[in-house]
Amino acid sequence: MSSKINAAITGTGSSAPKRVLTNLDLEKIVDTSDEWIIERTGIKERRIVEDGIVGTDLALDASKKAMEEAKVLPEEIDMILVGTVTPDFLLPSNACILQDKLKTKNAGVMDIVAACSGFIYGLSIAQAYIQTQKYKTILVIGVEILSHVTDWTDRNTCVLFGDGAGAAIVQPTNDDKGILATFLSGDGSLANLLHIPVGGCKTPLTEKNIKESMHFIKMQGSEVFKSAVRSMGDATERVLKLGAITSDEVDLLIPHQANMRIIEATARRVKLPMEKVFVNIHKYGNTSSASVPIALDEARKSGVIKKGSKVVLVAFGAGFTWGSALIKF
Ligand code: UT7
């Protein structure tokens, strides 16, 4: 026991749509192959929502699982933080809609627009509120319905993305565990390498730009790839330094699942063997802000993370944004 208040993850949950879209299914839609997708990305299949399902439905499912594990009732939640770039509506936020679905009574609600880094940004905000003792129970979520902003005629992007949600409950503890350090960063000068060009106030939707598919994700893959490798490696090193530990002491790295080659390059850069890296990209593809919390939940539930394990979460995404968290369980 120590007198210092730490912010600990006391429950996690995740949710993926039932509908599976395999590489073989994609071969029928665009000029691609199972072999190319596996070799260049590591993805075998991804989950895609059924018609009528929205992000807050998946977020609700993931949240209930996290709350059940942490034994948290809706009225005990002080704040809901939702990382998403594919909200149900532009207004109001997913956090507001989720508040109503969960029937929380006392929670502040906000969305975080940090793309693939959204969950880690949320954890960092939660850590600050818990350590300053303003709040006692915070629900942090990453959820995306990327299938709705994917151009299903563009082989450069449509093979990459999937839908899903992951959630965590963050609460105070006096024990020697919890979120030991976080690191956040960003660089808006590179925004146009990965973006949705229209649909905001600057360029509203028109019949013409929709016909030109400008309302879908556009990415310059190889440029994003280089920045992702550099930034995820840097963010991992920075958080280890902040937590005053070396990579030898890390039990598990949970990287954003965007590309197997980015994951391997990040592991090499921080000198971690692949046995210490959690990978589930083959099942879900890139689910942006949901990627890290889904992987965290699977790593915890499968027993890969044990009591005392030191785990690094790291992500990189559109914006660009990147960030990391060092957590002791
Ligand atoms: O989550 C946020 C962060 N996102 C990322 O980190 C994604 C980063 N980027 C990537 O993961 C990779 O750049 C991709 C997987 C998107 C692309 O891999 P790449 O090795 O960088 O391929 P490339 O874009 O340089 O394209 C190589 C070739 C091209 O053909 P040519 O011009 O050499 O004839 C592409 O047209 O591969 C072609 N290609 C494909 N071929 C079959 C691109 N997509 C496909 C495809 N199937 N789906």
Summarize the structure in words:
The longest helix has 22 residues, at 221-242. This protein is α/β, with parallel strands linked by helices. It contains 11 helices and 13 strands. Strands 1-7-6-4-5 form a 5-stranded mixed sheet, sandwiched between helices. α3 packs across α4 and α8 (221-242) packs parallel to α9 (260-269). It has 2 domains: 6-175, Peroxisomal Thiolase, Chain A, domain 1, CATH 3.40.47.10; 180-328, Peroxisomal Thiolase, Chain A, domain 1. The mean pLDDT is 97. It has helices at residues 23-27, 34-41, 55-70, 94-102, 118-131, 155-158, 207-211, 221-242, 260-269, 281-284, 291-301, and strands at residues 6-15, 20-22, 45-47, 79-83, 108-112, 138-145, 163-173, 178-186, 194-195, 218-219, 252-255, 310-317, 321-328. It binds oxa(dethia)-CoA. The site of oxa(dethia)-CoA (UT7) has 20 residues, from α2, α6, α8 and β12.
